[in-house]
Design goal:
The strands form four sheets. Strands 5-4-1-3-2-13 form a six-stranded mixed beta sheet. With about 375 residues, it is of the alpha/beta class. The protein folds into two domains: about 200 residues, no CATH class; about 160 residues, NAD(P)-binding Rossmann-like Domain (Rossmann fold, 3-Layer(aba) Sandwich), CATH 3.40.50. About 35% of the residues lie in helices and about 20% in strands.
C-alpha cells in the first residue's frame, strides 16, 4: 500500500471554518483568523479506496493547515513555513512518502523549495504539473463544446508569468492562432513572449490590463495568485470559455449571475481511479467534503496520489517554474493509472452537457 499526504487550508475563514465549528458563521472574519492562527495543524480526513488501473493501491490523509490565503501573505513567512513544516511532520507520522501542497500553500514563498529543504525525509510536490495538464485539456474540451476550434482561436492567459500560467501559454501556443499574455510585470511578460515566439507559430501579444487582454479572447485560462477576483463580467467576450485554475478564484461570482453567454469552468477536476472515500478524522462515519462530487479531486491532489501509485517518492514539481516536459510526463502517468478529466464544474457545482449547450445557444455560437 502506497501512502501520501496532502495539505489543505481554509480559503474563506467564515465559510470553511464553520464547517467544523458552526459558531464561526456568526463571528467576524478577523476574529476567526486570530483564533485559527493559534491552532496547530491536524489530520482532518483519511483518503482511502484509491486503486490504479494497474492494480496498485494507495491511501493517505488530508492535513489541515489553519491559515487563510490572506494570512499566508500577511504573516511573517517564517511563521507560515513553521506551520507547513508541522504539517509535513504529521505526514511523516502517518507514514506518507510524499506530501502535496494544496491551494495557496503551493503559491506562498518559493513554491515549496524551502519546505522541501526543511523536510528532507519526505518528498514534496506542488501538483502544478498535472494542474497545467488538466487546465489545458479542460479549456480545449470546453472550447470545442462551445464551437471554438483551437487552431483559429484567440487565447488569453491571465497570470502568464507565474509557474502555471507560463507553461499553459507555452503548450497552448503549439496549437492556437494567437496567445495574449496578461500580467502586471511588463518586463517579465516581454521575456516570456520572446521565448514563446522562438518556438511556436502563434502570434504572441502582451497586456498588463485584464480588460484589454481579454476583450478578444475565445479561450481564457486564469491562474493568478491574487486574493480577490480579477475577472469581472464586463471583461469577457460573448461565447468565451474561461478555465479558472486559481484558488481563491480569479473569476468574480458576478459572472455566474450576469453572464449566461459564457462558460466558466474550474480547472483540474479529476476522476480518481477506484472507490475513493474521505472518512473524517473526528467522525469517521461521516465523509469529509471539499465541494466536489464523490470520487473526484483537484488535479494537485491527484498528482500527489499518482506519484505515490507510481512509487515516485520524489519532489516532482517544486518552485515557480513548471516545464512542458513535466506536464507531458505527468499526463502519461495519469493515463497509466486511470486518472481522467471528470466533466466540468462551475462555481462549486456540476455543469451538464445540456447546460453548456444552452450557454452556447445564448452566446449565438452555434454553427
Amino acid at each position: 500500500m502506497q501512502k501520501f499526504a496532502f495539505i489543505i487550508h481554509p480559503i474563506n475563514a467564515r465559510r470553511d471554518v464553520s464547517r467544523r465549528y458552526p459558531v464561526a458563521k456568526h463571528l467576524p472574519e478577523g476574529l476567526i483568523e486570530w483564533y485559527i492562527k493559534q491552532r496547530e495543524p491536524m489530520v482532518v480526513a483519511k483518503v482511502v479506496g484509491i486503486k490504479s488501473a494497474t492494480g496498485e493501491e494507495a491511501e493517505g490523509c488530508f492535513i489541515g493547515c489553519p491559515l487563510t490565503p490572506r494570512q499566508m501573505l500577511s504573516l511573517p513567512i517564517d511563521f507560515v513555513w513553521d506551520k507547513l513544516e508541522a504539517c509535513g511532520r504529521i505526514a511523516m507520522e502517518q507514514g506518507a512518502g510524499i506530501l502535496g501542497l494544496g491551494a495557496f500553500t503551493s503559491v506562498v514563498g518559493d513554491g515549496g523549495i524551502t519546505l522541501a529543504k526543511r523536510l528532507p525525509e519526505i518528498a514534496v510536490t506542488t501538483g502544478n504539473s498535472y494542474t497545467v495538464a488538466t487546465a489545458i485539456l479542460g479549456a480545449k474540451t470546453g472550447a470545442e463544446m462551445m464551437g471554438h476550434d483551437i487552431s483559429d482561436a484567440k487565447v488569453a492567459v491571465v497570470g502568464a508569468t507565474g509557474s502555471i500560467g507560463a507553461t499553459c501559454a507555452e503548450i497552448l501556443a503549439r496549437d492556437a492562432e494567437e496567445v495574449t499574455l496578461v500580467g502586471r510585470d511588463k518586463a517579465r511578460l516581454s521575456a516570456l513572449a520572446e521565448r514563446l515566439r522562438s518556438q511556436s507559430k502563434a502570434q504572441i501579444t502582451l497586456a498588463t490590463d485584464v480588460a484589454d487582454g481579454l476583450k478578444n479572447a475565445d479561450i481564457i485560462i486564469t491562474v493568478t495568485s491574487a486574493v480577490d477576483a480579477v475577472i469581472m463580467p464586463e471583461h469577457i467576450k460573448r461565447g468565451a470559455v474561461v478555465c479558472d485554475v486559481a484558488r481563491p478564484r480569479d473569476v468574480s461570482g458576478r459572472v455566474a449571475k450576469e453572464r449566461n453567454d459564457v462558460l466558466v469552468i474550474e480547472g483540474g477536476v479529476v476522476s480518481v481511479p477506484g472507490n475513493m472515500r474521505l472518512p473524517r478524522s473526528d467522525r469517521p462515519a461521516e465523509e469529509f467534503s471539499f465541494g466536489f462530487p464523490s470520487g473526484t479531486a483537484y488535479a494537485c491532489m491527484s498528482e500527489t496520489m499518482m506519484l505515490a501509485l507510481e512509487h515516485r517518492y520524489e519532489s516532482f514539481t517544486l518552485g515557480k517554474d513548471v516545464a512542458a516536459s513535466q506536464v507531458d510526463e505527468i499526463s502519461l502517468i495519469a493515463a497509466k493509472h486511470g486518472f481522467q478529466l471528470a466533466g466540468f464544474r462551475s462555481f462549486e457545482r456540476a455543469v451538464s452537457k445540456e447546460e453548456i449547450g444552452q450557454i452556447r445557444q445564448n452566446a449565438g455560437t452555434i454553427k
